[in-house]
Write a structure and sequence with these properties.
The chain has five helices and no strands. With 119 residues, the chain is mainly alpha-helical.
Length: 119
């Protein structure tokens, strides 16, 4: 009886790659929001007036979000920012900053500005 023997192809094991900057949380919009919240909280600890002035906290959150997303775009830390124009990456930063400080605080302050009672 003749039995042909066929060799199976050897598959090399997959070696995990270094995550690099993705380990910092910059690989998603939510990660950038978390980093912005962390940085703004630390800045507020250094400058106590920021905690009492909500509008100032919103502005600082937006600026920090723009800076982090710009560097994420420029140095390719965040894959989802790849291929975007610079103004689109900066808009991601503004929205990350607003998300970090809370859209509710923003809407509440805008409504106070126009005289609506939000309490």
């Amino acid at each position: 009886m003749f039995v042909p023997v066929v060799a199976q192809e050897v598959i090399e094991p997959v070696i995990e790659q270094d995550v690099g900057w993705a380990g910092l949380g910059l690989s998603s919009f939510t990660g950038i929001v978390a980093i912005v919240a962390l940085v703004v909280t630390q800045i507020a600890k250094l400058v106590p007036i920021i905690e009492s002035k909500t509008v100032l906290k919103i502005l600082i959150s937006s600026v920090v979000g723009v800076v982090i997303s710009f560097f994420g775009w420029k140095f390719s830390f965040a894959a989802f920012l790849a291929g975007l124009e610079v103004w689109q990456a900066l808009l991601y930063g503004v929205f990350a900053g607003l998300s970090a400080c809370g859209f509710y605080d923003l809407i509440k302050n805008i409504s106070k500005f126009f005289g609506f009672n939000t309490d």
